[in-house]
């Protein structure tokens, strides 16, 4: 059974991401954990009131949040009548990232699935501040980011973008392989390079990656980098039938910078495709 953690701010975007996850893993036995953090509300309220009233306010926030989480649970059960799936709810006063990281360890979390932005994010940005924070802070589980209110369509083609600059491990690729196998999707390895010939180290890593992905029969696509790496990938996505993009999050790669600076206008294709971020395994 897979354990999938679903952060929610009770927005339509969050529910859409939740629904997408139930469809993506429809054939898999799963426990979905719906979680909401009211830490920011506690901070805002307790800074303005008598400290003696803090406990009563936290209790009230727990009750309110638990009720809302239960409403989400009942709605998803009505919308997705799937005997493979079960649901738990959690209300927490911890920061969202801390609560999720604890859950990943406690519940052996397999995936964290969330919307690309919440109810307060500006329309023209690609990702909201909470999602950007989660990319940087979530540890030991892949993060699947679902674009704003994206309708589910079967995942048949997954692009795995990489530079072959580091060795890979079976463990860090496993979440990608699991989604590919479950949905009978092919994996297209997209490599952006400044020249056609790879270095000796890249060739070694290339062979290792394709050996690890052998069961999924991966395809290789070389994109020549004539400027920004993500410009090349964005163009590729605009011309190919891709249903999901995946990358490994290394300490110094450009994922966070891309999403922080990007707008829907300048990389529109990213706004239409789920993004699977795999944690690096040392």
From TrEMBL:
Top-level taxonomic group: Bacteria
The UspA domain, residue ranges: 1-146
Lineage, top ranks: Bacteria, Pseudomonadati, Bacteroidota, Flavobacteriia, Flavobacteriales
Protein name: Universal stress protein UspA
Gene designation per UniProt: uspA_5
Family in the record: Belongs to the universal stress protein A family.
A Pfam family this chain is assigned to: Usp
Organism: Patiriisocius marinus
